[in-house]
Amino acid sequence: MLGTARGQGFEHVEAADDAEVIVVNTCGFIDGAKEESINTILEMAEYKKQGSCKKLVVTGCLSQRYSEDLAAGMPEVDHFLGSSDMPKIAHVLEDKAERMLVGNPADWVVSANDPRTLSTRGASAYVKIAEGCNRKCSFCVIPQLRGKQRSRRIEDVVEEVERLVDSGVLEINLISQDTVSYGRDLGDGTHLAELVRRVADVKGLKWLRLFYLYPEKMTDGLIELIADHPVVLPYVDMPIQHAADGMLRRMRRGHGGRRLYDLVERMRTRIDGLTFRTAFIVGHPGETPEEFQELVDFVQWAEFDRVGVFRYSDEEEAHAFSLGEKVTSQDSYNRARRLMSIQRKISKRKNKALVGKRLQVLVEGPSQESELVLVGRHRGQAPDIDGTVFLSGGEALPGSLVEVEIGQATDYDLLGDIDERVDPIFGIGKTYTRPSMVHSASDGRRVLRTV
Ligand code: SF4
Q1: Ligand 1: does its nearest atom lie under 6 Å from the Cβ of 386?
Q2: Are strands 401-409 and 414-418 parallel, antiparallel or unpaired?
Q3: Which residues contact 147 (CB under 8 A, 6 or more apart)?
Q4: Residue 220: φ, ψ to 5°
């Protein structure tokens, strides 16, 4: 949508009160996300009264799911688009569109020919390799919101990655709803490991990260690639959801707990320096105290690097909605807290073990808290969801890879000094204008220096 808008002569502004058109891209698959989306729409609607906003557009999964209700309850919204309607933003910007533009959720998947403007910082980009999901996990409404899986052709993904790398991108993050199933719908033998190898071989790419690896079909070929290819990061993002057999069956995950123990063991042994991120749901219907304890035991055994814990959200279109034995809100809250507190100690210990190590860090730019401090990420920190490395001492340009010696660690973040004796790596094809750069001196003073 940003790429389309730019192609039509629009400029992307940071502050909402400067915008003539505001697009709210919503999420609508659990209660917390719905609430956040609605609050954001209402907040943005204020700019139609006060700011320069003439058009408010709502898009994404919430408007796909509740288009009629939203249209009736929010007269201040000018247009509604769904989860497969991104190209329709062109008609909206041309003033040629009707109010309701929500279509079939399975209509569209992005391609290399679509215009693109990056919204990520620091030479990093997400690349969507497929849309939709063919699974039937009990708690999830994403297949209804996104439709059946549609994978892009390998050549199309590679073309997009080549273009991004040519413009200076060093890190690519491959995403979809069910990444290990990539290619199966194409029916010609295309599979994820083949795509990953082709993308990782793109000249100039330094980091390749994979998201949403469902545990059921994690192949040895893919594990080998993560372990051995110098560009594929030893970073696994695998939403495991639960570890007790009974719960996995009720969640309709297609495998039991034994497989998870085996898989985690296999990956830890085979992939040197692995960072393992996962997510769990607590309080799903039927979860007994004993089953929750099995999950706790698993988390303590596995010692994941990063864990997200979600409380079950009862969604009317999901299979689990019809299941009995609902867990009380208080119990699911207590279970989430207990799991998080166990994990916090593990994450802290793992972060502290990095003090004194030298790590390659991708510089993102000034931190959100202060323009005076630069931040970046090492290979084990994914954009947006993991912690960051605060950089002190030395100079660096956003979008470069620098060598950093880690000096301190908090629960989730790190602090380190840039080693200026090691030349930074820049993206190919990128021309830097050598901006005035703000950073911290190693003695703690905040200085402004031109680099
Ligand atoms: S694999 Fe993911 S997107 Fe697909 S149904 Fe399961 S939880 Fe939902």
Answers
A1: no
A2: antiparallel
A3: 84, 104, 105, 106, 107, 131, 132
A4: -60, -35
Place of tokens 């890190």: 171
| The 3-state secondary structure of 398-409, one letter per residue | CCCEEEEEEEEE
Last-in-domain residue among 93, 116, 150:
93
Any domain includes 118: no
Model confidence pLDDT, tens digit, residues 383-435: 999 999 999 877 788 899 999 999 999 888 999 999 888 888 888 766 554 44
Single out the residue in 297, 330, 352 at which a domain terminates.
352
Give the whole-angstrom CA distance, residue 236 versus residue 129.
17
What total of structural domains would you count in the chain? 3
Mutate to test the pocket of ligand 1, among 131, 178, 214, 319 (most ligand atoms within 8 A of CB): 178
User: Each residue of 147-162: pLDDT tens digit?
Assistant: 999 999 999 999 999 9
Domain range for 180 is 124-352
Query: Which tokens go with 363?
Result: 């510089």
Tell me: do 277 and 375 sit in the same domain. Answer: no
Beta strands in 170-239 (DSSP E): 171-175, 207-210, 232-237
**CATH no. for residue 51?**
3.40.50.12160
**For ligand 1, mutation pick of 131, 181, 185, 214 (most atoms within 8 Å of CB):** 214
Cα(136) to ligand 1 centroid in Å equals: 7
Instruction: Tell me whether strands 414-418 and 306-311 are parallel, antiparallel or unpaired.
Output: unpaired
34, 80: one domain: yes
In a domain, 102, yes or no: no
Query: Do 87 and 190 share a domain, yes or no?
Result: no
Alpha carbon of 43 to those of 14, 20, 51, 193: distances in Å?
A: 15, 15, 12, 43
141 and 269 in a single domain? The answer is: yes
**In sequence order, what E strands does 37-194 have?**
55-60, 79-80, 124-128, 130-131, 150-151, 171-175
Rg (CA), the chain: 23
pTM higher than 0.85: yes
